[in-house]
């Protein structure tokens, strides 16, 4: 932790002492900014009311905001971090609806309503799903309005497209598991890269940053460019290595590992995990190459994509590693002044 490091450096040198004190002040300023953001998110999440309506779903607003804090590290991007946490939370909630709650018929109706972007198409759905759908529409339109007013480009079509892709990918998985027929690992991964939700989050982030928005870059970001797909690949494969043990979920969301072992019955679990680790390593090489190559995107956006990939091993740790313990402690430190804030 930065604070612990600053408290343990040698301050016998006067120059080091001065810089150390300045660094501590800067650290407290940033911490104060993050605490204000957490309070905003906590109040927003409480007012949204989804936690009360969806008892089966995850209720972890602070953890979701950790993604935003880790990806957009500039202290001046406070508003963007708060807004980005909203679609992140919805990705998790909708994922739980598909994995834990909805029947296949309900999920088909839900996806159709998203594809049509029409709430009336969801009249047959359970109340909890209708409320979630309305929250999705309202939040997407609210974010679009804010971006339009600030940057002069209304991203509503792009944001809608990203949610449609996500729900269609979720529905495809639901159909697989309802039929009992698992896809080939390559087919699972193609769909799983979309169902990771990374594209939804990074499309929102692209517009929230507001840099270099034009027809070329918008078309490029809509098309699931490599800098996004490789980041999504890393998250999907890393998450699948743990089979959602971190969330104590009992849903049926499958994994690349499971599909690979079914396809290669003579391969041990250990060898299959080695194969997945190799795929993650390969995706990292490709992502690094993308970040170092010429790109229509701003450096702020590509760095943020890289930060997502960097954060994945920490957010999807499935053991008692020191890094996960440090994350929990940092979250508790930031939220120390808030009551009953869910952590992990």
Brief descriptors of the model:
single chain, 344 residues, 16 helices, disordered C terminus, Terpene synthase metal-binding domain-containing protein, lyase, terpene synthase activity, magnesium ion binding
Q: Outline, from the CA principal axes?
A: globular
Report the mean per-residue pLDDT as an integer. Answer: 87
Elements, N to C (H/E): HHHHHHHHHHHHHHHH
Number of strands: 0
Report the span from N to C terminus. 19 Å
Query: By helix and strand content, what is the structural category?
Result: mainly alpha
The stretches of 5 or more residues where confidence is low (pLDDT under 50) are 244-249, 337-344
Tell me the fraction of residues in β-strands, as a range.
Answer: under 5%
Level of helix content?
over 70%
Main sheet attributes: strand count, strand direction, barrel closure: none
Radius of gyration (CA) equals 21 Å
**Please, how many helices?**
16
GO biological process, one term: terpenoid biosynthetic process
Keywords: Lyase, Magnesium, Metal-binding
Domain Terpene synthase metal-binding: 46-286
InterPro entries: Terpene_cyclase-like_1_C, Terpene_synthase-like, Terpene_synthase_metal-bd
What does this structure look like?
- 73% of the residues lie in helices and 0% in strands.
- The protein has 344 residues and is mostly helical.
- The radius of gyration is 21 Å and the shape is globular.
- InterPro entries: Terpene_cyclase-like_1_C (IPR034741), Terpene_synthase-like (IPR050148), Terpene_synthase_metal-bd (IPR005630).
- One of its GO terms (biological process) is terpenoid biosynthetic process.
């Amino acid at each position: 932790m930065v604070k612990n490091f600053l408290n343990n450096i040698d301050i016998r040198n006067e120059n080091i002492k001065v810089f150390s004190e300045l660094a501590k002040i800067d650290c407290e300023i940033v911490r104060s900014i993050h605490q204000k953001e957490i309070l905003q998110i906590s109040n927003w999440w409480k007012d949204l009311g989804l936690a009360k309506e969806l008892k089966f779903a995850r209720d972890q607003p602070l953890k979701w905001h950790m993604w935003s804090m880790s990806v957009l590290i500039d202290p001046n991007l406070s508003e963007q971090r708060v807004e980005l946490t909203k679609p992140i939370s919805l990705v998790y909630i909708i994922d739980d609806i598909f994995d834990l709650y909805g029947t296949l018929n309900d999920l088909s109706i839900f996806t159709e309503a998203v594809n049509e972007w029409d709430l009336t198409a969801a009249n047959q759905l359970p109340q909890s799903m209708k409320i979630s759908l309305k929250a999705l529409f309202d939040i997407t339109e609210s974010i679009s309005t804010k971006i339009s007013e600030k940057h002069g480009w209304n991203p509503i079509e792009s944001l809608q497209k990203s949610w449609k892709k996500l729900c269609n990918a979720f529905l495809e998985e639901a159909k697989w598991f309802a039929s009992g027929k698992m896809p080939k690992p390559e087919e699972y991964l193609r769909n799983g890269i979309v169902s990771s939700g990374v594209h939804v989050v990074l499309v929102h982030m692209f517009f929230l940053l507001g840099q270099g928005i034009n027809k070329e870059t918008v078309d490029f970001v809509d098309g699931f460019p490599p800098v996004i797909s490789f980041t999504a690949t890393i998250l999907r494969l890393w998450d699948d290595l743990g089979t959602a043990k971190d969330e104590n979920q009992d849903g049926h969301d499958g994994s690349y590992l499971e599909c690979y072992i079914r396809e290669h019955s003579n391969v041990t679990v250990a060898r299959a995990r080695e194969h997945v680790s190799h795929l993650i390593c390969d995706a990292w090489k490709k992502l690094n190459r993308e970040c170092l190559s010429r790109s229509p995107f701003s450096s702020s956006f590509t760095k943020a994509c890289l930060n997502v990939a960097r954060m994945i091993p920490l957010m999807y740790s499935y053991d008692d590693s020191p890094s996960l313990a440090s994350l929990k402690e940092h979250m508790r430190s930031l939220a120390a002044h808030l009551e009953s804030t869910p952590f992990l």
